[in-house]
Amino acid sequence: MNNPNAECPYQCRTTNDKTLFAKSSAVIFHARDMPSVTTLNDLMRKKPVTQVWVYCSMENPIYTPPTSPLNNMFNWTMTYSSKSDVFFPYGQYIASPSPSIADDFTKGKDKLIVWGVSHCKLLRDQVAQKLSEYLPVNIYGGCASMFPKRHRDGTTCPRSSQQCDELLRRFKFALSFENEECPDYVTEKYWLPIIRGNLPIVLGEGINDDVAIPGSYINIKDFPNIKALSEYIKYLDKNHTAYNEYFQWKRKYKINS
């Protein structure tokens, strides 16, 4: 169930039709839309003996409603964690040998670092603030005004617009900071830059080569301080060969969409 290359032996049909509850082999409950305990208890009385209840959440535990009231109600878990019964990551990669790839991934990239952020006042803010003391960091989103040292070049990035997408593709690096450091918690903050062609700069212990593409990112934790990180970014900015090494994964893998 956790192997993206495996073929499912079952012919499954999904539905949002709650009138089919009693006929369903499995029912998925999303943590953010969880019915009340009273409603769940009522449903349990109607639950077929063989029916599986699946608890689904894509958020980390810090931002997930308490689960203690739900003890013993669910059979399986379905989350971003590789330890879940059903591994449901934000993105996956699979083996796909492709010896022929682009020669230079710096082409079309005339800007350095970008960060889109709308959830403020977290530890990651301090990291971005410090990095912007050494390098130009373009910051977009609801929190941009909190960073007086951000790079300002007159560009705007309206969310989900083609204009924004085209602008973001011009950056060599993207800050891909999660709101919390949790094991296996790798969200669209990593996957979207990968898809756009940016080199993600990640923060924390949560990301590893089991859930992210090996050799595709820079982890701040690998540097003694932000100044050392900034020097490495400057090196990659000037050394196209070294920068392109972070895209060699395309010879072995592809994103499983």
From TrEMBL:
Pathway(s) where this gene product acts: Protein modification; protein glycosylation
Gene3D superfamilies xrefs: Glycosyl transferase family 10, C-terminal domain (3.40.50.11660)
Main location: Golgi
One Gene Ontology molecular-function label: alpha-(1->3)-fucosyltransferase activity
SUPFAM superfamilies the record matches: UDP-Glycosyltransferase/glycogen phosphorylase
Domain Fucosyltransferase C-terminal stretches: 107-255
Keywords: Glycoprotein, Glycosyltransferase, Golgi apparatus, Membrane, Signal-anchor, Transferase, Transmembrane, Transmembrane helix
Pfam annotation, one family: Glyco_transf_10
Protein name as it appears in the record: Fucosyltransferase
Family classification: Belongs to the glycosyltransferase 10 family.
Annotated coiled-coil segments of the chain: none
Membrane topology of this protein: Single-pass type II membrane protein; Single-pass membrane protein
EC numbers for this chain: 2.4.1.-
InterPro entries hit by this protein: Glyco_tran_10_C, Glyco_tran_10_N, Glyco_trans_10, GT10-like_C_sf
Subcellular location: Golgi apparatus, Golgi stack membrane; Membrane
Span of domain Fucosyltransferase N-terminal: 10-91
Record-level GO cellular component terms: Golgi cisterna membrane
